[in-house]
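Sanity check

After download, print the first record. It should look like this:
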Amino acid sequence: MSAHERAGLGELLKRVVNTATVVMAEHDVHVVRSVASRVTAFAEGKKIAEGSADEVFESGDVKRVFLRGRRDA
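Expected structure tokens:
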């Protein structure tokens, strides 16, 4: 998806979550931060972190596996 399409999807999801639960798999950290109220990170089929986007992306395991120690923003 293009950046424009991702932004549109993010806006749509923000409206939908007011009336429904949405479960999605997404690897774009910025999209996740903009729409998710709860995040679960998996690595090799195992849950490594769960909580708010901030909590998950600050997790040492998530940084090690996905961000390689770098900040996402």
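If your output differs, re-run the checksum step. Summary of this record's structure: The first strand starts at residue 39 and ends at 43.
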